[in-house]
Request: fold
Amino acid sequence: MEVSAAIFSLLSLAAAATPVQSPNSAAVIQGVDAAVQARVDNVLGFTDMEHYAVYRDNDKTPAAQMTVRDTYSKGKGKIYTVLSKTGSSIIEHFGLQPLLDSETEINLPSQVAKSWFTSANYKMELKPGTQQVDGRTCYALSIKPRRAAPNMIEGTLWVDAGNYSIVRVQGVASKKPSVFAGTTHMMRDYKEIDGYSMATHARAESASLLFGRTVVVIQYDDYHLELRPR
Reply:
């Protein structure tokens, strides 16, 4: 017993003296690329419900709202079906509908790969340590788009430290959507559904000469995924 205790003490001291290795930046980035590719390869399609709410200036109630069904098919893209809309028809016409049109275009088969959070589209740099995001231990990476576009974010990407799936992204749009718009601050949260990261909440805030301060909040729920057979 005394010998065993001595050996245990030595092993404990050795473990304590061994520094915890920081993750290798290249390995984490490679893991992020692999997690994104796994989602692309295995999610053949999905449907979800999306609720859009637009707030003006400091209003507590939405100036316009829209609920849509999003239907995605790999190799075809997205189809948005508007289920309901209320509030300002001007905001709906000049704000929400162009947003849906833009998302439709971004997700065309010829375009969709350009917006993935991968090292092909973003310069990535791992930040020190880990951070807790929605109860998950995450690595944080600074990201900078390799090309400027309104849907490309310059800021921070958080990924799960265990499987590198996306947990949150936050920053500013790398390009203004128009000469009348100011800087757009963007964020999106994700959770794992059937093993793959899917958006659950998004927020974008901007200011423009025409509309002033505008905040768009999006809630995503009721996902149904079609996965590649295993």
User: Anything to note?
Assistant: The first helix runs from residue 2 to 17. The two ends are 51 Å apart (CA to CA). The longest strand covers residues 212-227. Residues 1-20 have pLDDT under 50 and may be disordered.
